[in-house]
């Protein structure tokens, strides 16, 4: 997989390619996520990564739980995002509502936005159920 086009900085991309930097699969998954490319291109790249590279565990990080399988995580993320997109583009589906929650504490800043809802009442109910 040629990961260099996914690196947002052309200078850094060119330098990494020049020195032949070998990215690990978790590095590549993160670069794809941060690339700023359309989600369809990100999903295609993650699918290619899953098909061509071995699976690995992912250690816990700030705002990210440990994962037993990078492949399973990426597959579930793709499925979740594609379901949200399909819901959004469903003809005659109506308005779309989302909730966002942001806060900060001694450990840093946090935010959460979860789900797409067809009515305000459903979004409000989900917000209260989660928090």
Explain what you see.
- With 131 residues, the chain is mainly alpha-helical.
- The chain has two domains: 1-90, no CATH class; 94-131, no CATH class.
- It contains five helices and two strands.
- A hairpin with a 2-residue loop joins strand 1 (100-105) and strand 2 (108-113).
- The longest helix has 19 residues, at 70-88.
- It is globular.
- It starts with 9 loop residues before the first helix and ends with a helix.
- 8% of the residues are buried.
Q: What best-fitting shape do the alpha-carbon axes yield?
A: globular
What's the total helix number? 5
How many strands, what sense, and barrel or not for the largest sheet?
2 strands, antiparallel
Quaternary organisation of the protein chains: single chain
Q: In sequence order, what are the helices and strands, one letter per element?
A: HHHHEEH
Number of domains: 2
| Uncertain spans | none
Helix proportion of residues, in percent?
40-55%
In short:
By secondary structure, the chain is mainly alpha-helical. 48% of the residues lie in helices and 9% in strands. Strands 1-2 form a two-stranded antiparallel ribbon.
């Amino acid at each position: 997989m040629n990961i260099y086009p996914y690196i947002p900085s052309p200078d850094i991309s060119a330098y990494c390619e020049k020195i032949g930097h070998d990215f690990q699969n978790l590095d590549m998954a993160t670069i794809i996520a941060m690339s700023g490319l359309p989600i369809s291109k990100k999903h295609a790249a993650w699918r290619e990564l899953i098909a061509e590279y071995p699976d690995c565990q992912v250690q816990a990080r700030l705002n990210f739980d440990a994962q037993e399988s990078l492949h399973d995580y990426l597959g579930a993320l793709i499925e979740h995002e594609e379901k949200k997109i399909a819901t959004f583009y469903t003809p005659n589906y109506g308005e779309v509502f989302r909730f966002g929650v942001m806060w900060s504490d001694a450990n840093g800043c946090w935010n959460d936005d979860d789900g797409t809802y067809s009515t305000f009442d459903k979004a409000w109910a989900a917000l209260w159920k989660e928090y």
